[in-house]
Here is the input.
Amino acid sequence: MRGMTSIVKTVTRAFEGIIFLFGVYVVLHGHLTPGGGFGGGVVIGAAFVLHILANGSREAETDARKSRSALVESFGTFAFWTLAIVGLIGGTVYFYNFISKGTLFRLLSAGFLPLANIVIGAEVAGAIVLVFITLASLKIGGEK
Here is the structure.
């Protein structure tokens, strides 16, 4: 499938960057407002899924996109567990907050929680894109 019409592709090009930036906002402000790593990761993943849907299934079948999504997901998982283990090494508790908490109600005010939101967002966005690409490549029902 070659993708959607040129109108859909143009609207997608206009909005996918805005959707991606909103997802980044949700991830970075998750410790201050509702949201966080999971919600922001879903929004970021949705921006990439929208791009793939607008441009067709050939876009989804490329091995490069699969490997990049898997790399992002693997990085997020590895970094999350690294944060947990560094807390054990730096302190005595699993997920020990080893970064100063800063000033209340500021962007850098939650210790290592914003770092955890970032790596969870990366893991979730990579997983969403991988699941979509996998389901899109199954070709259930066949293409015409």
